[in-house]
Design goal:
Number of helices: 5
Strand order of the largest sheet: 2-3-4-1-13-16-15-14
Helix content: 10-25%
Largest sheet: 8 strands, mixed
Low-confidence stretches: none
CATH topology: 2,3-Dihydroxybiphenyl 1,2-Dioxygenase, domain 1
Number of domains: 1
Mean pLDDT: 96
Length: 315
């Protein structure tokens, strides 16, 4: 059976691009690995944050658009995005969040301790200490390699039909159900990062798409051939996937699973160094070839943004 290694990326919607960069790069210490545009709406940025090279399983992406209405987290969405931090670094992160005025709480799920907080747009995040996953060698501001976020720990899915979401996770994506605890059903993939998915069995309200919500979650495909096999399987199972779409840094298909969540399957290659050197990632606005002729117009339309060391890290 085909199996995904886990999460490829997670894409969310927010209002302000500069605030978004300040939080994910400035506070959380992630690397802005790609500054491009929404291929379907080129007047809107598409920002990618990940580890030092933007490996699959580490990348969170955003569509920042000031005019979009506030959304509501609920059924039919990814409710919580989990990040892995090195074992022994939770005190560092508690102190760091406190320094930047980010309120947090602690919780326990499946005998693991989670540090829970929201980003400035209301997206729900959590940190979890685990040994697994490669070290992130990116150092920025006050976040150094020994404490740096490795990538995704996983996600909590707020499904409107948990049994249908379970079917997709197990019988199409190849995850294994490892147990239930209270309102959570846990699944694991074979990868060493982005590999733990919890389904919340009783989310309270219907989700509304908008700023502060997750747009979709993407799962890893090994290559183009692997992606086509999944596309065929989805068609056989009646999920009506989209055609293969070229996103420059990966190819992908999209479909809504039975619990209402938008799923994507995306290829690991070619990656973010396909159009700029690794040491230059995220510095320049990168455009697909068919929009390069509109660069000047787009650069005037898009708000100016920069990655900057925040004042709290200059003291």
């Amino acid at each position: 059976m085909q199996k995904t290694a886990g999460i490829h990326h997670i894409t969310s919607m927010v209002n302000d691009a500069g605030r978004n960069i300040d939080f994910y790069a400035g506070v959380l210490g992630l690397r802005l690995v790609k500054k491009t545009i929404n291929f379907d709406r080129p007047e809107v940025y598409h920002l990618y944050f990940g580890n030092d090279t933007g490996q699959p399983g580490t990348v969170i992406t955003f569509f920042p658009w000031a005019k979009q209405l506030k959304g509501r987290i609920g059924q039919g969405q990814v409710g919580v995005t989990s990040y892995v931090i090195p074992v022994g670094s939770v005190t560092f992160w508690e102190n760091r969040l406190q320094k930047f005025g980010v309120e947090f709480t602690s919780s326990v799920r499946f005998d693991e301790n989670y540090l829970k907080f929201n980003d400035p747009d209301g997206l729900q995040l959590e940190l979890i200490e685990r040994d697994e996953g490669p070290t992130n060698t990116w150092n920025f501001g006050g976040v150094q390699e020994e404490n740096a976020i490795k990538g995704f720990g996983g996600a909590v899915l707020f499904s409107a039909q948990p049994h249908k979401t379970t079917d997709v996770l197990e019988n199409i994506l190849g995850l294994e159900c490892t147990g239930q605890e209270n309102e959570f059903l846990r699944f694991k993939s074979d990868g060493n990062i982005g590999n733990t998915i919890d389904i919340h069995l009783n989310p309270s309200v219907r989700g509304l798409m908008g700023a502060g919500t997750v747009h979709h979650i993407a799962w890893r495909a090994k290559d183009d051939e692997d992606l086509l096999k999944w596309s065929s399987l989805l068609q056989e199972k009646g999920y009506f996937p989209t055609e293969v779409r070229d996103r420059n840094y990966f190819k992908a298909v999209y479909f809504h699973e039975g619990g209402g969540i938008l799923f994507e399957i995306a290829t690991d290659p070619p990656g973010f160094a396909v159009d700029e050197p690794v040491d230059e990632l995220g510095k320049k606005l990168m455009l697909p070839s068919w929009l390069e002729s509109k660069r000047e117009e787009l650069e005037e339309t898009l708000p100016p943004v920069e990655v900057r060391v925040l004042e709290g890290d200059k003291q």
